[in-house]
Predict the structure.
Amino acid sequence: MTAVLTAARRGRAAVKWAVSQLLVDRPWNVTSRVGFVVGLGLLFMVPGMLLATLVEWGSSVSDDEVALGMGALVTLAGGGLLVTFTRLDEDMPPASVFAAVAWTWIGLSLFAALPLWFSGELGSFDTALFEAVSGVTATGSTVLSPIEGTGRGVLMWRQIMQWYGGMGMVVLAVTILPFLGVGGLSLITAEAPGPTSDRLAPRVSSTARRLWALYGGITLAIAAALMIAGLSLYDAVAHAFTSAGTGGFSPYDDSIGHFDSIAVEAVMIVGMLVGGVSFTLHWRAAAGNPGVYGRSSEFRTYLLVILAVALFASLLNWLNDLSDLANSLRNGIFGAVTLGTSGGFGNASSTNPGGDFAAWTPGAQALLLPIMVMGGMTGSTAGGLKVLRAQVMAKYMRVGLLRVKHPRVVARVKLGQMAVSEPILQRVAGLVALYALSALVATLVLAALGQDLITSSSAAISALSNMGPALGDAGPTSNYLVFSRPARAVLMSMMLIGRLEFFAVFLVVVSAYERTRRLTRVNLRR
Amino acid sequence: MSDPSRVRFTWHRSAVRVLTSVVATATSLVVISTVVYLASGEVSRVDDAIFESVAGLTTTSLTVVDPEALPTWLLTWRALTQWLGGLGGLMLALVVVPAFGGQRRLSEVAEGRGRRAVLARTWSHNTQRVVLTYMGLTILVFAAYYAAGMGVFDAATFGLTTASTGGFANYRDSFAHFDSAAIEWVGAGAMALAGVSIAALVWMVRGKVQALWRSTELKLYACLTIGSTVLVSAWTWTDTGGGADTIRESFFVVTSSISTTGFRVTDWGYWVAAPQILLLLLIGVGSMAGSTGGGFRVLRVIEILGIVRRELVVQLHPRAVVPVRVSGAAASEASLTRVLNFQILWVLAVASGVIGIASLGGDLPTAVSGSISALATAGPGLGDLSGFADATVLAAPARGVLTALMFLGRLSIYPVVVVIGWGIGEIQRMRLRR
């Protein structure tokens, strides 16, 4: 026992030494925040790649160990080089925070595509890159077809990517940057800028560490529950990764429909719902205060909306004779949860065709669109505009109506006890507008590249909300090979824009524009 | 009425009363028109008569009657409801709203704040200007149609429904009936003009080129029209044979969409998806603020874009004070808040419409396009609503949803929602008293 403990202590010391060696500032280092954060993110991806390699090695379906191992090696080399030869500078202007986050995600997607590309299962690099972007943004749109028959290592890497992406690589990188101080928090918030940025601990690095510990714990719990529901270890772990991260990849063509088991679907529903809840709430609840769930109005709204959509959609499907009441309810609830949490699994199979929500009655499909846009709670692994923003907008609208009625009224939007200031309201509304603009532009471009109205608009929303399957031709039983290569490029950028909640990606563009215009001060006219 | 400053003071305190009277006026007009349709014996069902009346008074081109089977006097009445509806919309936007809320005055809408007003500031003068310009436009359009070869009756009714961006036609196949390039060119140009704000029309008459050039909204409106025409032509070039015909048809459908008029000249349901979606977007964007058209309005789009840009700049420079400029002048924060609120209301209305229509029997493309098109008071859509289809392709309950959307859209949502909220509050109070 003592021997094990000593070994563990020595191992930890070794890791600490290695990390400190990596982080040490050498005189020839280049000052580059982007490079440093990207490097750290890459290093953190290596264990996942190694795990996938191990799975591949252990399975007899195919032997792509070398390809996956090569991917891990290249990523290790890339990350190591970047971390060794770059340093962080002290001050963190907002522009560079956003740039760091945006470039981290682009860099990580490129490297995450390597194992897929090397294995040759996805053909050319651009399909591998699409799969990787869809993976690390926890979207779940796939171009792998057929999925079954692909090597287990590659499939496992897809699941692991979504697990990483669910919580966010930058949060991961921040766990070992105790010296970052305030800049670290702005990095985290730039990765998922909610209206509020909660700290779970006084120090940013401990906040990030706690988030990841919680995430790991939830994943383990889901995996255990899936095993109890009757899945093999491989299936359970694979699906736990993607349900906690509300990703949506599955190693089977029929997704969850492959198992055709109500128990498995129930566990997945709970898993996705948990993934779509704010991790701050989870942390407080885990710290011995489970009452926080009931007290959070965002949590109540989140559950209520999903439940309402599930019930109404089931009712409409049942009334239109799509299936009997029990099956309608089963599929309605699964569909509403999988889209309301931006999960994106499907439970359709040959024995349960009603799970294909792209084939639901039009009314039920129309009900799904709003929750696809809304997504999960702030501070969760889910995508979309977030429930809190929808609540804030609803209250903003009510105050606006009050002002029409009583032009001189002093009314404020309140969240709990706190009044929300006008600039923050405008920021949220601006984000909604950005979402709408991006969705409209993407819809038009996708349509110009040959898709119909419903396919292009729902695919744009799906990509922006990091959902996965869409309606129309890109439904849960189809895949994204229906889109042409340029259309997939548009979708990829929408996924990244949506995952980073708009500002990071657009700001990189805006700041580049500013730099070229040599506008250091704000004197943009018109 | 007399001086607006005095009028405004009392109206401030009774905004609900003003809004109620707006909604009540609109409703009573609908009732009158419904009675006319029913009394004529040409429309037998009450809900059809209501639909036709609402479509007319909201200047939407959706119809449930066969216009070729109607007597001349009823066709005239049908066109007149649209003309009245257009006038009502103008009065609401340019006279009533600015007067009661001290909100956006005509001069502010058209020229931005702080500029020397070209338009009169007084209430009665404004009303006079608006009505005269509107009548002038109608007569101009009538004359142009007549010159292009329409009969007197057609030119008059089409003049009424074009100037009001209404879109009711005397023929089942709308403009395709004439099969005349000249008439289509005139129609397209007239629709484009009808989508321009009354203020800008006044400038055009007076030759105020500078004022026209300064208007961001007019420039964007023109750019959208021309750019979309180019895009639609390019997308449909091979399908429609290319050449002048394609350009003319593209220009026609683009102006018909962006001005939210809704005249049809071709069945775009057979086109590829992209131009259809672009036209739907144009219908959603709609015409200039202060015109008879509907939609989200180009002005609001500019303000939304400005807010988005400001949010991006503020993220980079957290202490920057960035004004949102429209036509060279900074928009007031209050007006920006109103635009953002309107955006939410608009999206909510469309979403409810989509869910409603889809649940009541329309397929998804029809529901999405129908909601947007009805709320923008245009008419044409995709799916079942594309081409020369009239509203009878939808079941009666789904048409009820369209009716509500048209009504909401024409009154720019606010009055209806406020009055409904006030009504619910009154009922609750009555219950409490008991």
Summary: Chain B touches chain A through 65 residues (CB under 8 Å). Chain B has a mean pLDDT of 86.
